Amino acid sequence: MRFVIVTGMSGAGKSTTLKTLEDIGYFCVDNLPIQLIKRFAEIAYDKENDIDDVAIGVDIRSGVYLEQLSECLAELKSANYDYEILFLDSNDDVLIKRYKETRRNHPLARDGRVEDGIKIERSRIAFLRKEADYIIDTTSLLTRELKSELDKIFLENSEYSNFIISVVSFVFKYGIPRDADLVFDVRFLPNPYYDLELRPFTGNDEPVRDFVMQHDVAKEFLNKTVDLLEFLIPNYIKEGKNGLVIAVGCTGGKHRSVTLANGIYKELEPSPYSVKVEHRDIGKDVIRKG
User: Fold this and answer.
1) Average per-residue pLDDT in the chain?
2) How many angstroms separate the CA atoms of 256 and 193, rounded?
3) What is the third-level CATH fold of 2-154?
4) Would you call 287 exposed, middle or buried from its count of C-beta atoms within 10 A (0-12, 13-18, 19+)?
5) CA-CA-CA-CA torsion for 69, 75, 80, 81, nearest 10 degrees?
6) Residues pairing with 56 in the sheet
7) Half-sphere CA count of 171, side-chain side, radius 13 A
8) Any idea where the domains of the chain sit in the sequence?
9) pTM to 2 decimals?
10) What are phi and psi of 160, to 5 degrees?
11) Closest CA to 82 of 104, 48, 111, 54
């Protein structure tokens, strides 16, 4: 049986996580009072109750009682009740945006600014993040991507790394992605745009990919970039970083940057880390001109 404590920042995806776990067969309870967690564990681990897997949502809504959770977890350990902690996180800008979009109030900022509530919340639940078995940063994850990450952990039981890598292609005229950790400019490569036959295609298409990668300079760039990343990623993890956003930009955001972003993704994807690729601006100019 798996006993999962789902926690993290308000607005980071805990509700979606609990719904996903419920869909794959978990018995889920949200906002369970801290004082009842041990009793709930006793019931869940009682073989006569025939409960397979459970998940409970615990967060800042517990108020002052949240401070009792450390003691509660210690009691679970002493009683040999195994548990796992899943921590959902996201950067402050995205959390603020989500609150504004849903027009909800942060539980710690009902009469103040959302960012103030987020700051207080981070401080109060920091101990849970340190104890977490799994940390999922949902900053750049779509709902389906979050569900995919959850499936890896709780359905497929595959080896999971808390480190999430996002490779993003973009066009410089629309700005560098705000959450980018590393930015690579591939405008030095030969541009397929000037080939009228290739212009309508993108880096997702074989003709453009073949055009870009036929040049030795593109191959060398990809090899050196991947070599750099393989050096950097373990060192980022040692420093406590749980995600990396790699931005690859060009003039149009459609050909070279897409090709190289796909190339980086393909090289990193077999790694133990969670890797995804996104082409932020691939269709922007088409939409605007249309």
Assistant:
1) 89
2) 9
3) Rossmann fold (3.40.50)
4) exposed
5) -30
6) 5, 29
7) 13
8) 2-154, 164-289
9) 0.67
10) -125, 140
11) 54
